[in-house]
Amino acid sequence: MTTPRLKTSIAILGCGDVGSTLAYTLILNPICSEVILVDPKTDLLNAQVRDLGDATFRGNTGCKIRAGSHKDAGQADVVVITAGAKQKVGESRLSLLTRNLHILQSIFTSMSPISSHTILLLVANPVDILTYFAQKLSGLPPSQVLGTGTSLDSARLRGVLAEKAGVAPNSIDAYVLGEHGDGQFIAWSNITIGTAPLELGLPNFTPELKKDIAEHTRGAAAAIIASKGCTAYGVANIAASICKYILFNQRTVRPISFYQPSLGCCLSMPCVLGRKGVERAMPIILDETEQRELEDCAKNLRSVIEGAEREFGMRKD
Ligand SMILES: NC(=O)c1ccc[n+]([C@@H]2O[C@H](COP(=O)([O-])OP(=O)(O)OC[C@H]3O[C@@H](n4cnc5c(N)ncnc54)[C@H](O)[C@@H]3O)[C@@H](O)[C@H]2O)c1
């Protein structure tokens, strides 16, 4: 008889603002038996483990928290990568690429060998580009390497539409697709409010409102960063939900960043999430404008990838 697996574990690489908030979210809403935190700043790491550990003693969370190495992380069921520099006020996500790709390379060198069952979830920015490189560097199948992508932008979109329509956010189906960044676009043609298409569910919908909503969704992170220096609660909540869909094999449909063979990059499209990661892409019918936005977005991401491959000596030309 083989020994049963006693633990489910989520490793979080980087225990700064996002990583520690994610760990706290997982303690309050436990979905695994162990959270492993990894960070080269050992004083910070140990302090976070002690502080978060205090939140596990009230007795109704079965989740333990401990410090670990990159090697330990490589054996976890899910590895969430929040390690990396964050945007300063006015900075774009893409400007973080060189710094965060160096960090990503060093992570995979230290984590190897990675368990063939591990699912990687990228949070660090620019998340679509790092998801692409994480897949190359890890050697895992593309279905096991995901990025939070536009799932946070989509939640923000559902929030603003819910407020306008006077219904709960979970009564709305609405997807922001493409890049988690300036190249994102809203699949307006697919939005439903309860049982109704957008125009029926939101009778006061105008072109001005459409523009305002798109700007709000695109600019939400920058506005928060301008006032408090980071965003953490929203993305931590989204990352914790994605971990749950995976570990509970929940088969939930969400827009997340994953490899798109026909476009040659990672960007967000709807997919079914389960224990194997992306169980399958979920088809979506886009109108002509949305299809063009998708293609433009992929073209830009491809050119950033090619630039980074040149800079990091990963291309022959
Ligand atoms: N995808 C999203 O929606 C989203 C939202 C918010 C933030 N982010 C991104 O998440 C990242 C983290 O943001 P933050 O606010 O937590 O930053 P932070 O500076 O507070 O924390 C980052 C941590 O990563 C650690 N780190 C560096 N190299 C490491 C390595 N090799 N292994 C493990 N840890 C390492 C640092 O020591 C630091 O503690 C940034 O890139 C930010 O842009 C993404």
TrEMBL record:
Coiled coil: none annotated. NAD(+) binds at G14, C15, G16, D17, V18, G19, D39, N100, V123, A124, N125. GO terms for biological process: lactate metabolic process. It holds the Pfam family Ldh_1_N. The active site is at H180. Keywords: NAD, Oxidoreductase. GO terms for molecular function: L-lactate dehydrogenase (NAD+) activity. SUPFAM superfamilies: LDH C-terminal domain-like (SSF56327), NAD(P)-binding Rossmann-fold domains (SSF51735). Residues 10-147 form the Lactate/malate dehydrogenase N-terminal domain. Residues 150-309 form the Lactate/malate dehydrogenase C-terminal domain. InterPro entries: L-lactate/malate_DH (IPR001557), Lactate/malate_DH_C (IPR022383), Lactate/malate_DH_N (IPR001236), Lactate_DH/Glyco_Ohase_4_C (IPR015955), NAD(P)-bd_dom_sf (IPR036291). Belongs to the LDH/MDH superfamily. This is L-lactate dehydrogenase-like protein. It comes from Delitschia confertaspora ATCC 74209.
